[in-house]
Write a structure and sequence with these properties.
The chain has 13 helices and 22 strands. With 410 residues, it is α+β, with helices and mostly antiparallel strands. It folds into two domains: 247 residues, FAD/NAD(P)-binding domain, CATH 3.50.50; 146 residues, Helicase, Ruva Protein, domain 3 (Orthogonal Bundle), CATH 1.10.8.
Length: 410
């Protein structure tokens, strides 16, 4: 095994967090080695946001952190060191212009993740960061509790400082296998329970397969279990052949997948009518008495969905609302205000954009991203037990934590 000496820092993983960590450390005149197990850098970054790369958003730090739930406060020091404005300025300085077409979400003006990836790689090269691909790390070597080297399948690289930026388990086709979790678990770190998140879900109801043509806007969904009644999300919904997807599902799946540890099925209540309550729905259908019930409901919902809900209530779509039997009318109004769906499963980490869970935050110093257990070991990005919704949250966290680790590790 060949032994290569004298790196101030070794960064393991070439996602957003790892690359900016390496860039930041190299800017401070450190000799930096970036190790990536795949043939090319940034495979998952390239796929982010369907290839459009939603970098961040315009929210203030305090509001931004709230979207991460109970672990959000852990981010404060990293965001103070490198917030959304700093990220925008950083990319401007390396030749990437950005904009926020909806006033909130920030993208490169090209709407192409390749633009981001190429700019980061060019900056790594400008700063003479040594890059080695096809390097699967198998261990971080310690002597008397201090890091001495990083061992790959090909060799040993000597250093006293390591940034672990290996990500989670989402999209194993892009290299995510939980390597970092296994390595630091052997060093004494606790890894919280890992769940796939930000992905489509399967549902029991077969009627959804007939409603695949349309996106339903401003859908609200909540979990119909007493213990989880306060969990809810709002956004666009799309029905699939065997389930549901769309932004609201991607966000809410973060809350749903861990519940499968306790339940085989998870009941949801979904408002498909942009938040209208029962009284408002009744007012709507009574407003145009000459319309058929299908025509009336189709002003609230896509016709395909309207037809399926009427079928569930055993109502003739050609009837007028006033002629529909009372019990069937009540059932329809209830169904329109909250449609029940039963989540039965998901495709696991294969289709998960992010991982819920990771290295315990209790064992990491939020002011530096350094391990409280192993001196010289730093964490950034998704490898830690912190995850957020769609909309630039997770990428900003990766950049912020990577920047802080890179700035303070050597």
């Amino acid at each position: 095994m060949k032994n290569i000496f004298n790196y101030n820092l070794i960064v393991i993983g070439s996602g957003a967090a790892g690359m900016i960590g390496a860039i930041t450390a190299a800017n401070n005149d450190n000799k930096v080695l970036l190790l990536e197990k795949l043939p090319k850098l940034g495979a998952k970054l390239k796929a982010t946001g369907g290839g459009k790369c939603n970098l961040t958003n315009k929210l203030e730090n305090s509001v931004f952190m709230e979207h991460f739930g109970k672990n959000g406060r852990f981010m404060q020091d990293a965001l103070n060191a490198f917030n959304n404005n700093d990220l925008i300025e950083f990319f401007k300085n390396i030749g990437v212009s950005t904009h926020a077409p909806d006033g909130l979400r920030v993208f490169p003006t090209t709407h192409n993740s390749q633009t981001i990836l190429e700019a980061l790689i060019k900056e790594l090269e400008n700063l003479e960061v040594e890059i080695k691909t096809n390097q699967k790390v198998i261990d971080i070597e310690l002597i008397e509790g201090k890091i001495t080297s990083v061992i790959t399948e090909d060799g040993k690289y000597t250093t006293n400082h390591v940034i672990l930026a290996t990500g989670g388990l989402g999209y194993p086709s892009l290299g995510a296998e939980g390597d970092g979790h296994k390595i630091v678990k052997n060093l004494g770190h606790k890894i919280t329970k890992l769940h796939p998140a930000m992905m489509p879900l399967f549902v029991k109801e077969s009627w959804v397969k007939n409603c695949r043509a349309d996106t339903i806007a401003k859908v609200t969904m909540k979990i119909n279990l007493k213990k989880y009644k306060n969990l809810n999300a709002t956004g666009d919904l799309i029905f699939t052949k065997n389930g549901i997807r769309g932004p609201v599902v991607l966000d809410f799946s973060r809350e749903i997948t861990p519940i499968f540890d306790k339940y085989e099925e998870i009941p949801l209540l979904v408002n498909l009518t942009k938040g209208l309550n029962q009284d408002q729905i009744i007012t709507h259908v009574k407003k145009n008495p000459t319309l058929t019930i299908l025509e009336s409901i189709s002003k609230l919902l896509p016709t395909s969905v309207s037809y399926e809900l009427l079928k569930l209530c055993e109502i003739n779509p050609e009837e007028k609302y006033k002629t529909v039997e009372g019990k069937k009318r009540d059932k329809l109004i209830n169904l329109l205000s909250f449609t029940p769906l039963t989540v039965t499963g998901h495709e696991g980490f294969t289709k998960a954009m992010i991982t819920r869970g990771g290295v315990s935050l209790k064992e990491i110093n939020p002011k530096t991203m350094q391990s409280k257990i192993v001196k010289g070991l730093y964490f950034c990005g998704e490898v830690m037990d912190i995850d957020g919704p769609c909309g630039g949250y997770n990428l900003q966290w990766s950049f912020s934590s990577g920047y802080l680790a890179g700035k303070l590790c050597v």
